[in-house]
Amino acid sequence: MAKKSIVARDLKRQKMIDKYAAKRAELKAAGDYEGLAKLPRNSSPTRRKNRCAETGRPRGYMRQFGLSRIAFREHASKGEIPGITKASW
After folding, report:
1. Closest Cα partner for 13 from 54, 63, 58, 55?
2. If 0-12 CB within 10 Å is exposed, 13-18 middle and 19+ buried, where does residue 67 land?
3. Nearest-angstrom CA–CA distance, 75 and 72
4. How far is the C-alpha of 14 from the C-alpha of 51, rounded, in Å?
5. Domain residue limits, the chain
6. Which tens digit of pLDDT belongs to each residue from 30-87?
7. What's the pTM value of the predicted model, to 2 decimals?
8. In angstroms, rounded to a whole number, what is the distance separating the alpha carbons of residues 26 and 31?
9. What's the CATH fold of domain 50-89?
């Protein structure tokens, strides 16, 4: 489990990205890079890190499911993810 402070920080970044998205797009379209530089750093979408929705783990993230590989495997083994079965031959 990731530290709660790190998960909270990432959530704060997401809120800031949403808040400044329209202004950022407007400045980019106008080519005003000085104006973009004056916006908060955390308002840039590239500063956000993909994290597991369940555990907050940043590594081994599966974009299609929004889970880390470990959480995905647990749910898949229990049969909680539709269409996913464990391979056996």
Report:
1. 58
2. buried
3. 5
4. 12
5. 1-49, 50-89
6. 999 999 999 999 999 999 999 999 999 999 999 999 999 999 999 999 999 999 888 8
7. 0.76
8. 9
9. 30s Ribosomal Protein S14; Chain N (4.10.830)
